[in-house]
Amino acid sequence: MNKPDMSIERKRDNNETEYYYENPITSNKYMDKKYFIRTYGCQMNVHDSEEIAGILENLGFIPTDNIEDANIIILNTCAVRENAHDKVFGFLGRCKHLKDTKKDLIICLCGCMAQEESVVNEIIEKYPYIDLVFGTHNIHKLPDYLLNLNGKQRIEVTSDDDSITEIDEYKRDSKYSAWVNIMYGCNKFCTYCIVPYTRGKEKSRKSKDILREVEKLVSEGYQEVTLLGQNVNAYGTDKNDEITFAELLEEVAKTGIPRLRFVTSHPWNFTDEMIDVIAKYDNIMPYIHLPLQSGSDRILRAMGRRYTKEEYLNLFNKMKERIPNVAITTDIIVGFPGETESDFEETLDVVNKCKYDGAFTFIFSPRDGTPAAKMIDETPREEKEERLHRLNELVNKYSNMNNQKYLNKVVPVLLTDISEKDNTKLAGYTDTFKLVNVDAPRECLGKIVNVKITDAKSFSLDGILDKK
Ligand code: SAH
Ligand code: SF4
Ligand code: F3S
Hints:
The protein is an alpha/beta fold. Helices cover 32% and strands 22% of the residues. Helix 7 (245-254) packs parallel to helix 8, helix 10 runs parallel beside helix 11 (341-354) and helix 11 (341-354) runs parallel beside helix 12 (381-404). The longest helix has 24 residues, at 381-404. The radius of gyration is 23 Å and the shape is globular. FE3-S4 cluster (F3S) binds at residues 41-42, 44-45, 78-80, 111-112, 194-195, 198-199.
């Protein structure tokens, strides 16, 4: 195919070339117009928003933090639980109000909710003021959609396909710490989870593309890279000729990036090789997010998690033994259909044994189209809330206990932001991913500094620069 006039060329990882849209450089339709992005959900969405911001800036848009000033509002949505859903529809009300006073305001909805047929139908019926809906598989076509809006509502949700479009127009939120996608989608189909439906099947990026991206980030002075995937351990398994996640981690560590992290790993196929590589390289941070979901074998089976309580505990103990000073956090769901008090006590038992550094805890939320949404669920809401409360008390006790161990110690911290609590201070993370608010001058931003911990709370630490 010849390159059409006024178009942009993009490579796909299957070596095909695609051509899109009128050349944004020569189009001044959106020059100096302002964009506002509201992002819900996980790190995938946060990183997708960096891509969207990059695309918008290439079209001429400039960012604004003030929604009232915006010419375009993008809602990058999450569908993982009902409350994520409700927040978006709540926010849309506010957008409608803004659009009433500013007729040429463009409102776009994208992200995981856009991949839900029921949501798209609802938008067509009840939200005519949304100008554009686009899905998780076609973000890269956004310029085309925006340059060709014609006043009618446009719904552009494509289904998943086998290849990946390489993009390099991210407008990264941080100059020091970067997200790098290593794979897309999820094939695990845990029975409660909507992600495999909204994000499609597992697709690994080519390792050479990942390494090229990380090398570029290193040369730009980035101090930290976090490899992203819904289940990073599955990296490469969708291809015949790709390296494993353990090998990829090792290759990325060798680029010399000062700090390397990854999220999320599934306990099911976390190999010994992965543990060994994490232990071997000083620049792979001793921090693992290892979602448990439930401590009851019966519930784990109903969730389709593919491991037992004992297997989880064995893996956990192996990590603690082999990776010096490792911090482990988790995700837990309470009130899964059929969960009894004794199932729940199994979960508390795992929390007592693992004494997690932290945990995200959720009440089960039925998602349309998932098998768990059809399971009989007789536990009353109050009982689920009471379980969540008991779980949170225990989780907080242990995260506080773990944080207290840092008191008066000196630890390296990568300072990445102005502290949200006190704008005279900076904030950053220890190698074990503990948030620290540090009394340090602005020149320290982007540096890894030694910090003496002066106070420890359940969710953060306070510290001062260690002068020694
Ligand atoms: N890929 C990650 C999880 C992504 S979703 C993993 O497998 O670990 C983040 C968390 O949301 C999950 O770990 C789970 O604890 C929670 N979650 C997912 N679906 C949910 C649902 N239907 N109800 C309640 N919590 C849910
Ligand atoms: Fe959802 Fe399970 Fe995939 Fe995680 S591994 S994204 S919980 S289906
Ligand atoms: Fe939500 Fe989609 Fe992430 S459903 S958790 S934004 S993959």
